[in-house]
């Protein structure tokens, strides 16, 4: 059988987690919380399961959840959207990204992505018949060169994908970035996919600049968010996409043939959580900033250079002063000899630079972070 994705193998996240399990290492590689979802959210899920709410939800989402998402957007970004017409609940943000790409990319189209990039972007573009055009960002700042972006746009360019706060660099796009992005989109009549799954996790006073906040940007955008990231429930695979009405209609045409609808009891529980405990979202940045600071402080005496983390729950470490190994080999060494699992940054690139940088996830209990740092400080 001929493969449609011949270059795709087992993800680095699965590889490193398996290696960590094999060697009993502390797993700071895969990006999932070590702690559980909120008790209230779990209680409401249990309630709706036992109340018999176990059949199909409406394809676009349960109306109350759509309305609660619209209310969250209004509260956080001072923007009014129609939950019923513009918010589509999906089986995780990865499904939302896949459907958004399928909705706008046709054979021969080009889509600009910024490396290091989430590994689902390119396969989805290729399955739609398109081509990913990679623009590499490099350590330590991972800043976008907008002149390079302009030079990469051709008559075949259909869209640009951005991710802010950015996984894996932990950087955030600023107002000037969005202004230059908007100019290019308007000049070349391009569409935008904005991956904002870490939107509620920013640090040190850095405000998340959502595409939703700019009417001209949002007019040509799919904005993708994640309940899993926000509510420590990645295994539920719940997300959503917000788009202008006409784009949302095209999105839903494809969504209905991918999952049709998403887990009903979870939708009902999430709607209750948003309505009854809004403080969870508001406290998320402080919660994760504390986790970041625990890890940063514990690594202060190490030989690693710590790169600034402005958002997400990731921290980048430059190991140039420690080893000449490439980042993949160094991460394997860390698992087998040090007992800590990390992720090499090169796997997020089409053509990786020579940077010696790895990624750690700090969505873990404090004692886990401190023990991992203790081991890393021995290098």
TrEMBL record:
Cofactor(s) for this UniProt protein: pyridoxal 5'-phosphate
UniProt family annotation: Belongs to the class-I pyridoxal-phosphate-dependent aminotransferase family.
Gene: ybdL
This protein's GO CC annotations: cytoplasm
Keywords, comma-separated and alphabetical: Aminotransferase, Pyridoxal phosphate, Transferase
GO molecular function, one term: kynurenine-oxoglutarate transaminase activity
UniProt-listed SUPFAM superfamilies: PLP-dependent transferases
UniProt-listed Gene3D superfamilies: Aspartate Aminotransferase, domain 1 (3.90.1150.10), Type I PLP-dependent aspartate aminotransferase-like (Major domain) (3.40.640.10)
Organism superkingdom: Bacteria
InterPro entries named in the record: Aminotransferase_I/II_large, Kynurenine-oxoglutarate_AT, PyrdxlP-dep_Trfase, PyrdxlP-dep_Trfase_major, PyrdxlP-dep_Trfase_small
Residues in Aminotransferase class I/classII large domain copies: 26-376
Protein's UniProt name: Methionine aminotransferase
């Amino acid at each position: 059988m001929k493969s449609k994705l011949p270059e795709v193998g087992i993800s680095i996240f699965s590889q490193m987690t398996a290696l960590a399990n094999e060697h009993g290492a502390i797993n700071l590689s895969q990006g999932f919380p070590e702690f559980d979802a909120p008790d209230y959210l779990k209680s409401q899920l249990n309630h709706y399961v036992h109340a018999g709410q176990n059949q199909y939800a409406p394809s676009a989402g349960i109306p109350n959840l759509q309305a609660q998402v619209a209310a969250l957007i209004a509260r956080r970004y001072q923007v009014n959207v129609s939950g019923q017409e513009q918010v589509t609940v999906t089986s995780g943000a990865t499904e939302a990204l896949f459907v958004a790409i399928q909705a706008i990319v046709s054979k021969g189209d080009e889509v600009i992505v910024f490396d290091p990039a989430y590994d689902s972007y390119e396969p989805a573009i290729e399955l739609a018949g398109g081509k990913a055009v990679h623009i590499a960002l490099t350590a330590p700042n991972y800043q976008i060169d907008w002149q390079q972006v302009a030079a990469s746009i051709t008559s075949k360019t259909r869209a640009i994908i951005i991710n802010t706060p950015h996984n894996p660099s932990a950087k955030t796009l600023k107002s000037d970035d969005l202004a230059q992005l908007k100019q290019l989109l308007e000049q070349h009549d391009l569409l935008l996919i904005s991956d904002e799954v870490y939107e509620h996790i920013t640090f040190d006073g850095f405000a998340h600049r959502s595409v939703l906040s700019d009417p001209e940007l949002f007019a040509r955008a799919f904005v993708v968010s994640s309940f899993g990231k926000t509510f420590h429930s990645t295994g539920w695979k719940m997300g959503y996409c917000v788009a202008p009405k006409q784009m949302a209609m095209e999105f839903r045409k494809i969504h209905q043939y991918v999952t049709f609808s998403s887990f009903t009891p979870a939708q009902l529980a999430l709607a209750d959580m948003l309505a009854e405990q809004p403080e969870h979202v508001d406290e998320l940045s402080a919660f994760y900033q504390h986790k970041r600071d625990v890890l940063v402080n514990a690594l202060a005496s190490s030989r690693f250079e710590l790169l600034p983390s402005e958002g997400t729950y990731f921290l980048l470490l430059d190991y140039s002063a420690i080893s000449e190994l490439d980042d993949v080999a160094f991460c394997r060494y860390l698992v087998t000899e040090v007992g800590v699992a990390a992720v090499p940054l090169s796997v997020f690139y089409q053509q990786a630079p020579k940077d010696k940088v790895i990624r750690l996830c700090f969505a873990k209990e404090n004692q886990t972070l401190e023990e991992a740092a203790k081991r890393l400080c021995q290098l």
